Automatic annotation (TrEMBL):
GO terms for biological process: 2-oxoglutarate metabolic process. NAD(+) binds at residues 189-196, 212, 279. InterPro entries: Class-I_Pyr_Nuc-Dis_Oxidored, FAD/NAD-bd_sf, FAD/NAD-binding_dom, FAD/NAD-linked_Rdtase_dimer_sf, Lipoamide_DH, Pyr_nuc-diS_OxRdtase, Pyr_nucl-diS_OxRdtase_dimer, Pyr_OxRdtase_I_AS. The active site is a redox-active disulfide bond. Residues 7-336 form the FAD/NAD(P)-binding domain. FAD binds at residues 54, 152-154, 321, 327-330. This is Dihydrolipoyl dehydrogenase. Keywords: Disulfide bond, FAD, Flavoprotein, NAD, Nucleotide-binding, Oxidoreductase, Redox-active center.
Length: 474
């Protein structure tokens, strides 16, 4: 596709937010260009984040089941052997196929794809230095545009004195491409990424120690869910140390020596690899936005936008990890589509109160809406209803009975404020909770809905039925 003289929209970044914005803009009739500095499309999520990590989580779970769980089903498997090279090749193939499908989707939408490094030179102009491997054509491009949307995502956040070297002290990207199973793997940070990658390598044979300075693992998850998840992961053999800080780390004799402190006690731990997973930071270097007057939050470094995703420069928009809110791929996708609609004068909107989050450990943990802690902090009168998976026939048949469903319900209106699940298929089940909250449904309505039997989703129905009914009037 040849370069146009001008574009309605130039999108910088092809991750979930960027490609969703480009596709929606094209659907709305905008001439659209998408600039991506990497060789492949899809951003962090598709290439070194969501997709490859879930591929390894699924593969490692199958390996674990083959070694430890098939016998109880009457299936004897002998001499189970790990072929890590094949497992990694499968992961890479999944990524390759999805990036190829994404390119085809964008090309069918008549979106011009340009691989190169972008810099916003003016409110209506993007300068692109195309990658050297790009075929014929000018190396330097000027893309005039009515609107510019920045969706450059985020990158791992290093700790002071714990710089990534890619071999001993590694990032989440490095942890997705190890060629051997570390005998001892240390992880700094008990957030979603740390727990997921810890699960992968523990299943494959690593001794995993997770170090977290906060009193709770799993970030902002509901407290009861987080405590249950930590208990179950510890039972699987993961060593999780809360309220513990890393005071020093050094590579010595091909090992990472880590000094940690918890309360008044100190310890020194030795690892083959140390994964630093303490969050991510917005990727904004080199874009030239400061010079144009685009405002960033001094505390987070993220771009400040209004309800329509406009920056202080009206023609420049921003979405995804570089603006406020959870750093989640589906949050960025929703914002991308909404931003394109706002450019077209439509009421693009994202309901941040119902955005789900998932931890793909085993068992999985998922949540949407208010946690019990949120409701208490905001002074909202609430009731809870819980139901264990051990009470559902489907979970019993599968042999996956750990966990529960928990509903947070407004005490006087019975409306569902939050849904939190830890257990089998939590990542899929949470969609029912999101739909219920979007529709303003009550616990009574969910309890009266007929759910298929036997299914995991019956636990949601039972949790709704377990909400006390004396305090409210229907």
């Amino acid at each position: 596709m040849s370069q146009k003289n001008t574009y309605d929209v130039v999108v910088i970044g092809s991750g979930p937010g960027g490609y969703s914005a480009a596709l929606r803009a094209a659907q709305l009739g905008f001439d659209t260009a998408l600039v991506e500095k990497e060789k492949t499309l899809g951003g962090v999520c598709l290439n070194v984040g969501c997709i490859p990590s879930k591929a390894l989580l699924d593969s490692s779970e199958r390996y674990h089941q083959a070694r430890h769980k098939m016998a109880e089903h009457g299936i004897e498997i002998k001499d189970v052997r790990l072929d890590l090279e094949t497992m990694m090749s499968r992961k890479n193939k999944v990524v390759e196929e999805l990036t190829h499908n994404l390119r085809e989707l964008l090309e069918r939408g008549k979106i011009e794809i340009i691989h190169g490094t972008a810099r916003v030179e003016a409110p209506d102009r993007v300068h692109v230095t195309r990658n050297e491997e790009t075929g014929s054509g000018d190396r330097e491009l000027i893309l005039p545009a009515r609107y510019i949307l920045v969706a450059t995502g985020s990158e791992p956040n290093p700790l002071p004195d714990l710089d990534f070297d890619g071999k001993h002290i590694i990032s989440s990207t490095d942890a997705l491409a190890l060629d051997t199973v570390p005998k001892r793997l240390g992880i700094v940070g008990a957030g979603y990424v740390g727990l997921e990658l810890g699960s992968v390598w523990q299943r494959l044979g690593s001794e995993v120690t997770v170090i977290e300075m906060l009193p709770q693992a799993a970030g902002n998850a509901d407290g009861q869910v987080a405590r249950t998840l930590m208990r179950l992961l510890k039972a699987q053999g993961m060593d999780i140390r809360l309220k513990t800080t890393v005071t020093k780390a050094a590579v010595k004799d091909n090992q990472v020596e880590v000094s940690v402190k918890a309360k008044d006690a100190s310890d020194t731990l030795s690892f083959d690899r140390l994964l630093v997973s303490v969050g991510r930071r917005p990727r904004l270097d080199g874009l030239g936005l400061d010079e144009l007057g685009v405002e960033t939050d001094p505390d987070t470094g993220r771009i400040v936008v209004d309800a329509a995703f406009r920056t202080r420069v009206p023609s420049i928009y921003a979405i995804g990890d570089i603006i406020a809110g959870p750093m989640l791929a589906h949050k960025a996708s929703a914002e991308g589509a909404a931003a394109a609609e706002c450019m077209a004068g439509l009421p693009g909107d994202v309901n941040y109160d119902t955005i789900p989050s998932v931890i793909y450990t085993s068992p999985q943990a998922a949540g949407a809406g208010m946690t019990q802690e949120d409701a208490k902090k905001r002074g909202i009168p609430f009731l809870t209803g819980t139901y264990p998976f051990s009470g559902t026939g489907r979970a019993r048949c599968l042999g996956e009975t750990d966990g529960f469903v928990k509903l947070i319900v407004h005490k006087t209106s019975d409306r569902i404020l939050g849904v939190h699940i830890i257990g089998p298929s939590a990542s899929e089940m949470i969609a029912e909770g999101v739909a219920a909250m979007e529709a303003g449904m009550t616990a009574t309505q969910i309890a009266s809905m007929v759910h298929s039997h036997p299914t995991f989703s019956e636990a949601i129905q039972e949790a709704a039925a377990a909400v006390p009914k004396k305090q409210w009037q229907p």
